[in-house]
Amino acid sequence: SQTIHQWPATLVQPVGSPLSLECTVEGTSNPNLYWYRQAAGRGLQLLFYSVGIGQISSEVPQNLSASRPQDRQFILSSKKLLLSDSGFYLCAWSLGGVAAFFGQGTRLTVV
Amino acid sequence: RKEVEQDPGPFNVPEGATVAFNCTYSNSASQSFFWYRQDCRKEPKLLMSVYSSGNEDGRFTAQLNRASQYISLLIRDSKLSDSATYLCVVKGGTSYGKLTFGQGTILTVHP
Description:
A: mainly beta, seven-stranded mixed sheet, 11 strands, 0% helix, globular, B: mainly beta, six-stranded mixed sheet
C-alpha cells in the first residue's frame, strides 16, 4: 500500500532563516505531488504541484521554492523565512484522476 | 472569481438533522471531484469521490452537475462525530494534475 511521509511535524524558525521540508511517498511510481499551506482558520492554498521529475508548477509567487529530485521526493524550501510564512504545510500525492492523500503536515511558526 | 467556491458556514445543526453543502467551480474542463473532511489541526482526509451519476456512501450522498458546475454533499442523520470542516475539491482541467480546494464549510453538530 502507498504511504506518505512528511517531516518534521512542528518547526519553529527565526525570521530570515532558511527552510527545508521534505516529503516522500512509498508504494507507487510517478505520482503527482503537491505542497499546500493553510494559515490559521483559513483554507488550503496550493503552493506547488509536480506531475513528474523536474516538472514544478508554481501557483503563488512568494519566497518559497520546490524541487523534485527523485520520483517520490518533493522538497519545499526557502532561503529566508518571513513572518507570513507561518502556517500548516501539507504534502500530498495522487495518481491520475484518483483523489489525493495527505501527509500529517508540518506546523511552521516563524518568530 | 475563485476556482472553487463554498459557503463557509458555519452550519450548526442538532444530532439527527440533514444538512447539505454546496460548491461551485469555475473551470468547465475540470475532470475529477471530491469531498474531503478536515478535523481541527489535522490533515484533510478523503470523504468520497463525486461521480456524474451521483453516489452514496452510508449517510453521505454526493451529486455533480457538470452543466451548472455545481457539486453538493448531503449528510443525513448527523452525528456529533460529523463535526468538522468539509472541503470541496476539483482536479484537472486545463492544468493537468492540479488539485484545487475550496475554502471549506464548517459543520458543528450539537446534542
